[in-house]
Amino acid sequence: MQKHTRGRRFGAHGRRDRGQTAIEYLGWIPILLLVALAAIQLGIAVYAVQQAGTAARAAARTASIDNGSGVQAGKAAMSDWLADGTDVDVSMAGDEVTATAYVEIPSLIPVFAFDRATRSATMPVTDR
């Protein structure tokens, strides 16, 4: 025995739902883009902090060996695209050198501003 559908073919309801589903997916796209941008921004911030540590260690190491400033060595140890917005301070106190690197964290969305990433490193001064 066959069931009669009175002018409606089987599957017609499914076609109408496909259009609605596509519109529902369009509603999720801004949320997914925001989550993706937040994840990328978090990665950039973590990378900037890591680069600040690299710059501080390189500056302190160079200053402890050469009795120089080490600022250029700190910036040279970093990625070029972060080195431009970086400040490195080197101070000598007795037989130790402390270098502090301040790195600007780039923002993907210009509306948001972030504090600078700051890392310090201390090395003993070596006699030549």
UniProtKB/TrEMBL annotation:
InterPro entries: TadE-like_dom. Keywords: Membrane, Transmembrane, Transmembrane helix. Residues 19-61 form the TadE-like domain. The chain crosses the membrane at residues 25-49. This is Pilus assembly protein.
